[in-house]
Amino acid sequence: MKHISTAAYQALRAALPVVIWNRRPYETFLRTALRDNSELLVGLNFSDTKRNVADQLIDVLVAKEDKYQEVTLQLMLEVASMDRFPNLEQIKDEADRKQRIQEATVAVLHLRSVTEKYSSRLAEAERAETSRKAAVAQAEAIRRFSDDIASLKNRFLGMQNEPNTHKRGYEFESLLADLFLLYDLEPRLSYTTDWEQIDGSFSHDTDDYIMEARWRTDPASRADGSIFKDKVLTKGKNAMGLFVSIAGFTSDFLEKFKVSTPFITLDGTDLYLVLDDRVRLDDLIRVKKRHANDTGSCWFPANEYLLS
Questions:
Q1: Residue 162, pLDDT score
Q2: CA proximity to 288, closest of 275, 301, 271
Q3: Sorting pLDDT into bands at 50, 70 and 90, what band is 237?
Q4: Core vs surface per residue 161-181: b (16+ CB within 10 A) or e
Q5: What average pLDDT does range 254-259 have in this prediction?
Q6: CB-based burial of residue 201 (10 Å sphere; 0-12 exposed, 13-18 middle, 19+ buried)?
């Protein structure tokens, strides 16, 4: 770390007492400028002269430069950037006012000349700190995501032994909603229209999806797919469907919906790979939708995506 020059410290020492005339505004300025490091204000006697207060402060900043260099540079550059002196402008005597403003202008210009080279150093330090905070935030977000997806996986595994099929079905819809929420897919829980039951809905990219969620012993049949197809086709132009069947789909189902499908499918293996954090749900939905658009087929297993 390069030290701040003696000339810069002296220029700050000279500028601080002359840019503000009255003690109370002077104290307010320093307390505001140093609000994130209020310990620097401890021991400063603001009833003393402004010059003595500045000397006390600068002595501490010099002695503890390793800790307060960035704070010192920020204070220097803030004072050096002054182009008006509102407190000095309130001095009633015109001659005195002009003299004080002239003294402040000279002091600030001198401080600016000796601190100009530090602007890039401070900007670099701020960029580095911003990058560090961003990295910390990203790491924390990744950790939270890993914890949340692991919790959902444990819920999923725990549901395997639920004997009450109705309870399991309700918990399954809730788990899917929480999974979609984790991926910011704006889920809506199951709802009923005047003529049909919808197990849930969500948004992804520019499409809205309605969902069929099934946790049954048998694979979803061709008839199940046809019923769901009719539900999807009665929705808006950009509506798609997602048929989730833990037990998978019959060969008749896949044969029927290998062309012109209005929905994509997700089976138990797909879902486990998502919950095991081996594939992202949003990526998987995107490639399944792309496959459906390219081929017309509802079926594109996650294992194939991972191998591609």
A1: 86
A2: 301
A3: confident
A4: eeeeeeebbebbbebbbebbe
A5: 96
A6: buried
Phi-psi region at 260: left, alpha or beta (left = phi > 0; alpha = psi -120 to 50)? left
Phi, psi of 43 (to 5 degrees): 95, -15
Mean pLDDT across 139-159: 94
Rounded to whole angstroms, the Cα distance separating 236 from 307 reads 34
Q: What type of residue sits at position 292?
A: A
User: DSSP string of 60-86?
Assistant: HHHHTHHHHHHHHHHHHHHHHT----T
User: Angle at the Cα of 303 (from 299 to 305), degrees rounded to 5?
Assistant: 75
Helix axes 50-63, 65-80, angle to 10 degrees: 140
Residues 104 and 87: beta-carbon distance below 8 Å: no
Name the burial class of residue 127, with classes exposed (0-12), middle (13-18) and buried (19+) by CB atoms within 10 angstroms of its CB.
Answer: exposed
Please name every residue paired with 263 in a beta bridge, in sequence order, or none if there are none.
Answer: 241
- Between CA 104 and CA 78, with CA 61 as vertex, the angle to 5 degrees is 40
Phi, psi of 209 (to 5 degrees): -115, 140
Query: Which candidate, 24, 107, 115, places its Cα nearest to that of 72?
Result: 115
pLDDT at 121 over 80: no
Phi, psi angles (nearest 5°) of residue 86: -55, -40
State the average pLDDT over residues 177-200: 85
Q: How far apart, in whole angstroms, are the C-alpha atoms of residue 153 and residue 159? A: 10
Task: Kindly state the tokens that stand for 108.
Answer: 């600030």
Domain 153-307 -> CATH class: alpha beta
Strands 207-214 and 239-245, sheet pairing: parallel
Q: Where are the domains of the chain?
A: 6-116, 153-307
CB 114 within 8 A of CB 5: yes
Contact 217, 248 (CB under 8 A): no
